[in-house]
């Protein structure tokens, strides 16, 4: 799990937006991120887009992970716009869950960094989230993430 | 009878059993211990000795007779097989109606209604993100919408499974529809499929609406009201499906469900109801996972535990109250996005386990449910799967065909012991209501979900196409998903806004105040007031919002 630089602690928000409340996926991913040494901010389902933006801002997160089982991914493009409007364009957003191929394209075009489909391993998810956290840190601070101030 | 045919081929002291053991050990070497999902060790071979050792050496009874291990009816699947109950719901009421009439044309006699997630959340269509409307179910917000859903359908003739959590607004809308058409409520048959509020707090949090005590009270009102005014309606469906989908093992799911049923029945008794009157209208709803024999044993064990509980603990004297009637749905979490057509094989095995388990009603998933609400083509395969198993494979020719199998009977006994042990944990915590309030059940399920995930990640639990036998991903089997027509949904929304605005404000205020009066009074029946409100034109959100105010909002229980 470690990438040889234990000083780097990604800050990730694991949440669900929209109407559905199936939280098996978000709970398992949150636990896996915590076990992989990340700072995890976890919320119950049904967060509004403004609530997620506020939390991302206040908690200074690097990555927002959106879990979606029942079509709530359809409003993720709105979340991307809201994050950018709040000056959080550097925050990386990943989506995990049930996303049809043709709609994955829409999400990526709106700025989503990656969509994790059912069958993704926790190792794969946490490795990528760590990588995206570095990107976010670099993009946000304008400094080398290897030497965070 | 265990004497070998040719004894001198054996070492003189070796019995047949010993010879088998020796040859098995030589053949497989050091075999690791295999256990099923519920944690019961599984032997390579079962004999009569195992069945005696597992506890029950009594003769098996007959179907339709206590303890019902072999089925709740004498005829079982040889008589009436099972209800094919496919979930339907998408888009606008007109979309739903089209799909429903199509199913009825093809001979369906039982229907279901899945509302949009916004309905589950107690929200009307004018207060949610429009992108989400109708993507997971039909948008029904008032009695007029239900009337359109059921246009051209004889609601007095069909059995309807209503996916309708507390405070049961959809049933209220349907009763008003029936009333408008002059159909007597005594003819209305079907089930309130999501009446088990406890399961909604444990898992599938889609349904949070009322506080735990509020939901408990409304359920009691609902059961009492239906008993009096819609006596053929099943107001109570005790749900294990959500919990198993959320990660509970089969034994846990059965134990939590039975504990919920006991909780609800004891609440009814405390309210002064007679178990002989309400228990015959209790039904159950379960998940069928791919753990084939474990599922069969789960159902057989659950059936006999319930018969005992109903008689001994709840004091029901009538056999009708002891029968464990259940609907089952093949497990969606077992399906894979990779090589999606493989899901048809998975669903077939799951359905077989449910049939051998003695179910009364079955929903087979569509293979495409991992990426969308079922397409019509995939839904047809799901129905065909049931027809093939019944009419081509002849699975229903013999009642309880696995009864008497050394393995199945031993496993049934062991699952029974496991289920009873988990139920004791719940009883020790003060019953299901208290155990859910304290988060105990949620923590147990979370731990089981994590254990299963680790088994999949380590490869100990094979998932074909995911952690073994991976193949080039054939995206061609995942056709583009179509969402409900945005223009039609917009028209539905405009109509709804106009209809709301056209209602006399005084009548709306009065109907809402009547709800409050019922909620505030100990003798009032909240569900009766919901039906009156539906008749007066109240919307789902108006009813839910007022009852949340009066009975408390269902906050998620934070479980870490």
Structure description:
The complex is a heterodimer of chains A (149) and B (560). Chain A has helices spanning 24-35, 49-58, 76-85, 101-109, 122-141; strands spanning 11-15, 39-42, 63-68, 92-97, 114-116. With 149 residues, chain A is an alpha/beta fold. Chain A has one domain: Rossmann fold, CATH 3.40.50. In chain A, strands 2-1-3-4-5 form a 5-stranded parallel sheet, with helices on both faces. With 560 residues, chain B is an alpha/beta fold. The N and C termini of chain B lie far apart (57 Å). The longest helix of chain B is centred in the last third of the chain and has 23 residues, at 406-428. The model of chain B has no long low-confidence stretch (mean pLDDT 91). In chain B, α12 packs parallel to α13 (342-356). Chain B has helices at residues 16-28, 48-53, 93-105, 117-120, 143-149, 169-180, 197-202, 212-229, 241-245, 250-270, 275-278, 292-313, 342-356, 376-392, 406-428, 432-437, 440-458, 486-502, 505-520, 526-535, 540-551; strands at 34-35, 41-42, 83-84, 110-113, 159-162, 189-192, 233-234, 236-239, 282-288, 326-330, 361-363. Chain B has a single domain, classed as Alpha-Beta Barrel (TIM Barrel). Chain A binds chain B through residues 18-24, 27-28, 31, 44-46, 70-72, 74-75, 78, 98-103, 117-119, 121-123, and chain B through 116-118, 120-121, 123, 128-129, 131-132, 135-136, 203-208, 245-247, 333, 336-338, 370-372, 446, 449-450, 453, 457, 463, 465-467, 475, 478, 480-481, 483, 556, 558.
């Amino acid at each position: 799990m470690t990438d040889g630089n234990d000083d780097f602690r990604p800050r990730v928000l694991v949440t669900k937006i929209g109407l559905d409340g199936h939280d098996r996926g978000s709970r398992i991913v949150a636990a896996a991120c915590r076990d992989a040494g990340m700072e995890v901010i976890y919320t119950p389902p049904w967060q509004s887009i403004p609530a997620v933006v506020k939390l991302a801002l206040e908690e200074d997160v690097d990555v927002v992970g959106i879990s979606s089982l029942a079509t709530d991914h359809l409003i993720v493009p709105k979340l991307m716009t809201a994050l950018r409007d709040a000056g959080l364009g550097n925050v990386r957003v990943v989506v995990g869950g049930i996303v049809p191929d043709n709609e994955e394209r829409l999400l990526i075009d709106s700025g989503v960094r990656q969509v994790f489909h059912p069958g993704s391993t926790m190792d794969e998810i946490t490795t990528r989230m760590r990588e995206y956290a570095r990107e976010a840190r670099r993009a946000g601070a304008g400094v080398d993430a290897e030497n965070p101030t | 009878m265990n004497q070998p045919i040719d004894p001198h081929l054996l070492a003189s002291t070796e019995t047949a059993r010993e010879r088998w053991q020796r040859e098995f050990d030589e053949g497989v070497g050091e075999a690791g211990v295999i256990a099923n999902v519920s944690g019961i060790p599984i032997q390579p071979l079962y004999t009569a000795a195992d069945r005696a050792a597992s506890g029950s050496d009594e003769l098996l009874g007959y179907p339709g007779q206590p303890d019902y291990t072999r089925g709740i009816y004498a005829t079982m699947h040889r008589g009436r097989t099972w209800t094919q109950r496919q979930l339907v719901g998408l888009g606008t009421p007109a979309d739903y109606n089209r799909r429903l009439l199509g199913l009825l044309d093809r001979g369906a006699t039982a229907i279901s209604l899945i509302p949009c997630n916004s309905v589950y959340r107690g929200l009307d269509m004018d207060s949610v993100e429009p992108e989400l409307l109708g993507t997971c179910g039909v948008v029904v917000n008032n009695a007029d919408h239900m009337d359109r859903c059921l246009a051209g359908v004889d609601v007095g003739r069909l059995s309807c499974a209503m996916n309708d959590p507390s405070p049961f607004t959809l049933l209220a809308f349907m009763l008003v529809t029936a009333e408008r058409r002059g159909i007597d409520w005594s003819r209305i048959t079907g089930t309130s499929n999501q009446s088990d509020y406890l399961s909604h707090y444990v898992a599938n949090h889609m349904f949070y609406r009322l506080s735990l005590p509020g939901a408990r009270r409304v359920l009691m009102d609902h059961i009492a009201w239906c008993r009096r005014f819609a006596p053929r309606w099943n107001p109570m469906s005790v749900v294990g499906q959500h919990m198993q989908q959320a990660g509970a093992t089969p034994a846990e799911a059965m134990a939590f469900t039975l504990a919920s049923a006991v909780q609800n029945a004891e609440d009814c008794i405390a309210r002064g109801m007679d178990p002989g009157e309400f228990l015959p209208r209790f039904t159950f709803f379960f998940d069928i996972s791919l753990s084939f024999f474990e599922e069969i044993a789960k159902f057989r064990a659950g059936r006999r535990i319930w018969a005992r509980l109903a008689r001994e603990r709840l004091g029901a004297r009538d056999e009708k109250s002891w029968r464990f009637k259940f609907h089952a749905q093949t497990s969606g979490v077992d399906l894979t996005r990779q090589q999606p057509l493989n899901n048809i094989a998975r669903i077939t095995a799951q359905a077989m386990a449910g049939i051998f388990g003695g179910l009364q009603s079955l929903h087979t998933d569509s293979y495409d449910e991992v990426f969308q609400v079922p397409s019509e083509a995939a839904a047809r395969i799901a129905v065909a799967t049931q027809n093939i198993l019944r009419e081509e494979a002849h699975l229903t020719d013999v009642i309880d065909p696995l009864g008497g199998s050394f393995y199945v009977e031993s496993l049934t006994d062991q699952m029974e012991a496991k289920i009873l042990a988990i139920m004791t944990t719940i009883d020790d915590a003060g019953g299901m209501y208290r155990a859910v309030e304290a988060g105990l059940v949620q923590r147990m399920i979370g731990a089981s979900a994590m254990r299963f995930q680790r088994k999949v990640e380590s490869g100990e639990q094979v998932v074909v196409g995911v952690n073994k036998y991976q193949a080039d991903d054939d995206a061609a089997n995942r056709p583009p998903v179509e969402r409900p027509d945005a223009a039609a949904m917009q028209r539905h929304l405009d109509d709804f806004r106009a209809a709301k605005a056209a209602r006399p404000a005084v009548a709306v205020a009065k109907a809402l105040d009547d709800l409050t009066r019922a909620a505030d009074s100990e003798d009032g029946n909240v569900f009766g007031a919901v039906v009156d409100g539906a008749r007066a034109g109240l919307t789902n959100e108006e009813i839910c919002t007022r009852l949340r105010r009066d009975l408390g909002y269902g906050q998620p229980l934070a479980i870490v």
